[in-house]
Amino acid sequence: MNGTWLTLFAVGAATFAYRLSCIEFGSNLEASVLGNPRVKRLLRFVPPAAFAALVAPAIVVRDGALVTNPLDPRLLAALVALVCALATRSVLLTLTSGMLALHAVRFLLGG
Predict the structure, then answer these.
(1) 26 or 48, greater pLDDT
(2) Which CA distances in Å does 79 have to 12, 38, 95?
(3) Other C-beta atoms within 10 Å of 60: how many?
(4) How far is the C-alpha of 109 from the C-alpha of 100, rounded, in Å?
(5) How many Cα neighbours within 13 Å face the side chain of 12?
(6) What's the mean pLDDT in 55-78?
């Protein structure tokens, strides 16, 4: 057995243990913890925070450096998407407006 198979086995075992622990601990949480209004309020912020953590680096970092050009197409498109999100609170409209703005700005600025 070479190192590649050991690595694959170790990663598979770690993934299985992680998923099993989430299932096991998640099913054993008491209803009082999940029924707590503070916990429910905090859990509502998890999806937007995870989405922001995924999207923000793609917007503000280019080639490993922070984007400082205010006319960067991604920054302008993100601004349009932010305004749309605040105005409509619609995920579909926000994504659509952001993508349309990105393509429009790239077309207009040649970026």
Answers:
(1) 48
(2) 41, 31, 12
(3) 15
(4) 14
(5) 6
(6) 90
